[in-house]
Amino acid sequence: MTGKVSNLEDGKIAGYPSKSREQSRLCRPQTAGGKFTLVTLAICAGSLLLCGCNSKQETSGGEKTGEQTSSTGSGTTTEPAKSEDKTGQASQTNTPDDATAKEPAVTGGNVKLPNAVNLATLPPTMVICTVDGTPVTISQFKREYREAIGSLQAVLGMQPMQVQELVKQATAAGVSLTADEKKKLLEAARKPQSLEGKSLDKFLKEKKLTEAEFDKQVIDLGLAFKVGAKLIEQQLLTELINRELLLAEAKAQNFYKPAYNNYLKVKDLPKYKKMLEMSDQTPEEIKEDLIQGEMLIMLMQKIARESVASDKELLAFYQKNKEAFKHGEKVRLSHIVLAAPRVDAPPMESIKTQLKKQNPTMSDADLDKEVLVVKQQKMRLAQELLARANKGEDFKSLADDNTEDMQARQAKNGGDLGYIDVVAAQAGPDQKALLDAVKNLKPGQLALTPVETNFGYHVIKLTEKVPAGTFSFDEIKDQLKEKFVAQNMEAAKTRWLVNKRKSAKIVFSDEFRKASSTASVPQANVK
To answer: Would the pTM of this model clear 0.90, i.e. be above it?
Structure first.
């Protein structure tokens, strides 16, 4: 896995986001609908026929194995190479050529499996190559290929625009479906299980599609899948090698412990439990995948931060894009909140839900009465705190000691809510309620009464008003740095890999050489 638990993405293939195994399962579509109805079940049923439309590779991609490996990856991909792959005699140390080193941002030089290799016939434990001593196995490649294909299916099912993008790539690359592939796709797509249990006529009528439109969608989806699978197949081994290099560095940087701590924060979340239910991996495998993914994100952030733009470059960017840094009127607020949630917003539970858990047999009518009692108690507490603040007690101390916003309480920041854009905030009912309460106040004044939102009762203090204008460079500088870090992460990773490959020892195994039935194995090279 190559990404963070909350946003595990690392690389794209023509709009196909590379996600973690578990995220890819969670995002797979359950039903099809709308004018652009792509019958994903039909495509899934025939997907092994289209995994590169290569009888050798399609079997290896779809075959399940129970083997565990010492290390796992995400099956992520990069943008298709714009230059021809460089191949040559295998050597123990693989070094980018001079042109590659000069232009590290160009993606290419994928390490491809030889065409003669039939992975289905190779033992899962066979080592393809070692990366500084860490093995990349047949089992690992199959598993990552299968998961990448699953993610591709999910994205194509949910994002019709990506289908069209890949169809364009297929046309440009001269990739097409054979007559037999088209026939099998259309036959599968017409089966009731692919049409929400309906006949074709009924399905077309409900979706307001002609049969010709339906057939075109099926064929386009099949072609998109075929070219997407080929791109994954071409790039996967390179990504597995890159991942091992990055993971080794993440371990050397001691990122395991903080990554493990982050895992502990998510393991009890509903999303994680759903992950366990849907995955064919063991809980221990999923745990290690998530931890390793978190480690890699930490490493990527560190690499990107170390190559951040200079103040001079940031200033030049600011001056060139000054119009983008205009802002409307803003206010800065501090608050003391007494929690009385009206709605369930996980992980926060409403008062009613909390009371129901404490008293499972209580009727709804009695629950409503108890909710009212709790709300009245919270309102009285808010009024008492407001009175104390009006009498001159330090608002920051009152907030730090009494707010039920636990994050603010731990931060001891006096309940600071930061700057709120007056215009943008009007779209949110809770923020609008807070703004309405302070619109006639001067900085330093308190709202006359506690304000109720979905979260509870707020004692509000207006600390600052800022008229509409343009952010100064000093105000926006730190945000610009963060933006540059985010934009620079992929390029920084590529540069890091180029340098790392100069000393990395990537060796194809003797057993794989023999099995490949080829005189040479492609050189491991990154551009």
So the answer is: no
